[in-house]
Every structure is written in structure tokens, then in C-alpha cells.
Write a structure and sequence with these properties.
The protein has 551 residues and is mainly beta. It folds into five domains: 1-25; 31-144, Immunoglobulin-like (Sandwich); 147-272, no CATH class; 278-361, Immunoglobulin-like, CATH 2.60.40; 369-543, Glucose Permease (Domain IIA), CATH 2.70.70. Helix content is 13%, strand content 38%. The protein is built from six helices and 39 strands. Strands 27, 30, 32, 33, 34, 36, 38 and 39 form an eight-stranded antiparallel sheet that branches. A seven-stranded antiparallel sheet has the order 2-1-4-5-6-7-3, with helices on one face. Strands 10, 11, 12, 14, 15, 16 and 17 form a seven-stranded mixed sheet that branches. A hairpin with a 5-residue loop joins strand 14 and strand 15. It is rod-shaped and about 125 Å long.
Length: 551
């Protein structure tokens, strides 16, 4: 019995160190390793950042010691609270010899006392609030502050770091921590000329974006907010081009933002000029009897183009080249069968359809009846279908030219007085059967009255027709013509191929009773034609030719 007792005593003595270790571990499991035993620490943040610390280096030794002290000051609890976001934690891997000890840390930036550490045995401890605050104010806690994220720029879908940045964010205690980064690399991206999209991860309070080409020509200088590739570069790029971008951006400290700083971004973009066709109308709304300019860009072959309208307008325009663009004038007949309403013009280019919408409204100008009794002076036999067709054929035979001569507003010659305007009903003989609608401006012109063009252009016809008598046609470009007829005689500038302006004389009025064509002898006419049919001159008087801008 005595031997058994002695043996029991020895067993207890032998177990004392183990029991003491268990007791010590249960009460102080927070420091299972000594700083002197640790060689390195791997620190992984919730944002994916990873840092390596070495005990032989001062910064590493300080941080490792800080964590060990933090562990030692922590208080054991039963389990990790349910409201802890385990996706927002740090992982610390201590390396002691060849052994790795992994700890998990969960810090709260809202309530420091609700921060926790989980040791390698999955035991949970509440971190002392003072230690939490010390960590939250350190540079290792950046992942916990969204404001610490240095701004980046997304270029054609790829993330670009700043070439240089000075960035300050504020921690739990209001301490400002500044990050300075330098990246000398200037990357080159490849994109279509309209695909150079730019967006900042944080919208700057002010910015200056400068875009230059290889010849140092400045293509854009303005804010990032105002930059838009489809409008900024679309009008400038006409071939494959290497562009150089420099962006200077500033972020001011604002209440609630908890950050401030500035950054520079430098990069190049090799643009690929492979644009899709684009079409637009000069106006969204016109009146019956007017015309609209149809423009297009990035069209390789005119033969690839076709036109249709719904409802139908009974006209298919002819496209012409205007430098890099294409143009077509589309008249809207005054007596359009479908009348007013919304029309859809569809331009087809290489099999792809491009719909354009035009609103057509009723004429707003006067349609008052003008009655004159010139039965003894007007040869009514001259106004026949055949003679009108001859006159119309002359106008329809004139090809559209690629040069736009007309500029500014049209100034129509009113001679010695106006007798009828576009759209008015005229009774030249006093008989209703002889009435007709004026296609232009009828004005009094005696033998010495000078007739001048309404705008700049080239004389393309000097002729005599049965209905129009002495006739001069001026080409204003793109298929827009003005015609002057029932002239008493031709002017010195009435020479085909001559460029004329509003001060040049192309004709004179007639003598009473001796006029040529359908006139009383002292009445001349000026009309504007597009596509072989007369159109209203009122818009040309008030605004000139409206071309519009690309969509």
C-alpha cells in the first residue's frame, strides 16, 4: 500500500508541469508563442492585401510585438458574436521555426470594444478597446477604411493606377494618413475612336484632361466630366492615330468624405478608325413645301446607300460627297399626299438600316389670293402642261454638286415691289380657271430693274423656255438651285460657269406688254428648287441652310 502511495505521489509530481501548462494555457492562451521565437509574420487584409514582416527588421519587430501584446491583453469569451462580419477580418500567420500559427482578427471601426481575435485552437477573445483603437489608427488598418482606396482610372474597361498620387484618408480617431505612390510606366491601350471611355473610381472635384496626337496638336482640353469620346473625338479622328492622355485630378476634403488628395494619370491609346455609318437630319421639324438636309458620315461608297420614307414622299434623294461626309436634300412637297404628321426616313447602308424621324407641319405663311387683270398682257396660251413640263425638265436635269456655295441667309430680289409670294394663289387674268399657286416670288421689274441672285452660287443655265422666257439658273450647291425667269434681258454675269454673289447682275426686267414668257412684261419671278421641284424660300430667308450636327 505504501508503495502504491509513493507511486501516486511520483505520478502527481510528474504531472504537475502538465497541469500547470494546462492551467496557464486556459488562462493565458493568448500568448502561446514568444516574440523571441518568431521569425516572420504574414499579414493578410480583408481587401486582399498581403504584407510580410520580419522580426529582424524594426518595423516588423514593432508590429509583431504589438500583436502579441494585443493577444495578451485580450479577454476570453465563449464564442464569436453572430453579428461579427467574418468576411472583413485579418489573418496573421506567425512563423516560429518551421511551425505556423494562424490567428484571425476582427476589428470594428464603429465600436472598438466589439473587436475579437480567434487563436489557432479556435478559442475566441475580446480585444481590449485601447488596442483596437491603436490598430485602427495605424497604417495596417487601411483595408477597413473605404476612403483609403487610392483613386484609379478605368480606361477602355481596364483599371489604371495613377502615375503619381498624394492621398490622405482619416482613421477612427481622425488621424490623417497619407499615401504617396509613383508609377512611371505609361501604358498603351487599343480602342476604336469612339470606344475610348474614361471613368474615375472617385469622381474628382476638379480635373484637367488633355489629349494630344503625335504632332502635339491638342485635340481636347477640358474636364473629365465634359469628355465624351463619341462627341469629343468622333469629329476629330479620321484615321488610325496614337493619342496621348494626361489627367490631373483633385479631390477636396469634404464633410463625410474622410479623404482628400490629388493624382496624375498618363497613358496612350492607339485608336482604330473603323467607324459605323451615321446619319442625321438638319432639322427635326419642317413645314409642307420646305426641304431638309440629310447628312451622313463614314460612308465608303455612295452606291451602298438607298432611301425610303414612311409614309411615302414620292421622292428619292441623290447623295453627294461633301469632303468626308455625304449630303442629300430632301424636298417635302407642299401637296404631299399623306399631309402633315411624323415621317420616318430610312437610310440603308451596306444592308443596315438607319431610321430618322421628321415631323411635318402645315404651312404658316399666307395663302391669300392675289388677283390681277392682265388679260390683255399675259399670253395664257403659254401656261400649258407641256410648257410647264419643259420648264420642270430643265430644273430636274441639273445635277447636284458637292460644293456648297450658299452662305448665311438668302436675300431674294424684290425689284420695284412684290406682287406674290410663295404659296399664294394668283389670278393673272381675273379668271378662276387661270389661277395657280405661286412657286416663288413674283416682283415688279422694269427694263432698268436689276435682277441679282438670292445667294452665292454658280450660273449653270442661261436659256429661253416657252413658259419662263429668258431664264437664268444659279446653283447654290448640294442640289439647291434658284431660278430667275421672265427676264427682259440677260445681265452681264449671266454666263454659264460664272460664280456670282448677291451684288452681281444676272438679268433685267422687261418692258410693259413686251415680256417674254408667261408675264405681263414687268413681272419677273424667282424660285428655289430642290430635286426637280420648287420649295419654300421662307426658311432660307430666315435661317439659311440648316445642316445640323451628328448624333
Amino acid at each position: 500500500m505504501k508503495k502504491l502511495f509513493i507511486r501516486a505521489i511520483w505520478v502527481c509530481i510528474c504531472l504537475i508541469p502538465t497541469l500547470m501548462a494546462i492551467i496557464v494555457y486556459n488562462h493565458t492562451p493568448k500568448t502561446p508563442i514568444q516574440s523571441s521565437e518568431i521569425s516572420s509574420l504574414t499579414w493578410e487584409g480583408p481587401g486582399g492585401s498581403t504584407a510580410q514582416f520580419w522580426m529582424k527588421e524594426k518595423d516588423g519587430k514593432d508590429f509583431i510585438s504589438f500583436l502579441l501584446d494585443l493577444n495578451g491583453n485580450a479577454t476570453p469569451i465563449d464564442k464569436l458574436p453572430k453579428d461579427v462580419n467574418t468576411d472583413n477580418g485579418y489573418t496573421a500567420t506567425f512563423v516560429t521555426g518551421g511551425v505556423r500559427s494562424v490567428y484571425q482578427y476582427y476589428f470594428s471601426t464603429v465600436s472598438p470594444s466589439n473587436s475579437y481575435v480567434v487563436d489557432p485552437e479556435k478559442k475566441v477573445f475580446r480585444i481590449d478597446a485601447a488596442d483596437t483603437i491603436a490598430f485602427l489608427d495605424s497604417g495596417q488598418s487601411a483595408d477597413l477604411y473605404p476612403a483609403s482606396a487610392v483613386p484609379t482610372l478605368t480606361v477602355v474597361g481596364e483599371t489604371l493606377s495613377a502615375s503619381s498620387v498624394n492621398w490622405t484618408y482619416y482613421t477612427y480617431s481622425g488621424t490623417g494618413r497619407t499615401l504617396n505612390e509613383v508609377n512611371p510606366d505609361i501604358p498603351t491601350y487599343t480602342a476604336s475612336y469612339v470606344g475610348i471611355t474614361l471613368s474615375a473610381s472617385r469622381i474628382p472635384d476638379s480635373s484637367l484632361l488633355v489629349i494630344t496626337d503625335d504632332s502635339d496638336q491638342v485635340l481636347y482640353k477640358g474636364s473629365l466630366a465634359d469628355y465624351n469620346a463619341s462627341t469629343t473625338l468622333k469629329k476629330l479622328i479620321r484615321k488610325d492615330t496614337l493619342l496621348h492622355f494626361t489627367l490631373e485630378a483633385d479631390w477636396k476634403e469634404q464633410e463625410g468624405a474622410k479623404y482628400s488628395g490629388n493624382a496624375s494619370f498618363c497613358f496612350d491609346v492607339q485608336t482604330i478608325f473603323d467607324p459605323a455609318a451615321n446619319f442625321w437630319l438638319g432639322e427635326k421639324s419642317v413645314e409642307l413645301g420646305e426641304f431638309v438636309v440629310l447628312s451622313g458620315e463614314f460612308v465608303e461608297e455612295l452606291s451602298d446607300l438607298s432611301f425610303s420614307s414612311s409614309p411615302a414622299i414620292g421622292f428619292s434623294p441623290t447623295f453627294i460627297r461633301d469632303g468626308d461626309l455625304v449630303r442629300a436634300l430632301v424636298p417635302i412637297p407642299r401637296e404631299l399626299a399623306a399631309g402633315t404628321g411624323q415621317y420616318t426616313f430610312t437610310v440603308t447602308c451596306q444592308g443596315k438600316e438607319y431610321p430618322l424621324t421628321l415631323n411635318v407641319t402645315a404651312p404658316t405663311h399666307s395663302e391669300a389670293i392675289k388677283t390681277y387683270n392682265y388679260s390683255q398682257k399675259v399670253n395664257t396660251a403659254l401656261r400649258t402642261e407641256a410648257n410647264l413640263a419643259e420648264f420642270g425638265s430643265l430644273m430636274a436635269s441639273l445635277p447636284a454638286t458637292s460644293t456648297l456655295y450658299a452662305s448665311d441667309s438668302f436675300v431674294l430680289n424684290t425689284g420695284e415691289g412684290t406682287r406674290a409670294k410663295y404659296g399664294q394663289i394668283i389670278h393673272n387674268t381675273g379668271r378662276e380657271a387661270d389661277q395657280f399657286r405661286s412657286n416663288g416670288l413674283a416682283f415688279v421689274a422694269y427694263a432698268d430693274t436689276k435682277v441679282t441672285p438670292a445667294s452665292g452660287g454658280t450660273v449653270v443655265a442661261v436659256t429661253t423656255t416657252s413658259y419662263g422666257g429668258n431664264t437664268v439658273v444659279v446653283d447654290h450647291g448640294w442640289g439647291l438651285f434658284s431660278v430667275y425667269y421672265c427676264l427682259g434681258s440677260f445681265g452681264e454675269k449671266a454666263v454659264v460657269g460664272t460664280y456670282v454673289t448677291t451684288t452681281d447682275v444676272i438679268g433685267y426686267g422687261g418692258r410693259e406688254g413686251k415680256g417674254v414668257g408667261y408675264t405681263d412684261g414687268i413681272t419677273c419671278y424667282c424660285e428655289v428648287w430642290v430635286g426637280g421641284q420648287p420649295v419654300s424660300y421662307y426658311p432660307l430667308e430666315s435661317q439659311g441652310i440648316v445642316i445640323g450636327t451628328p448624333n
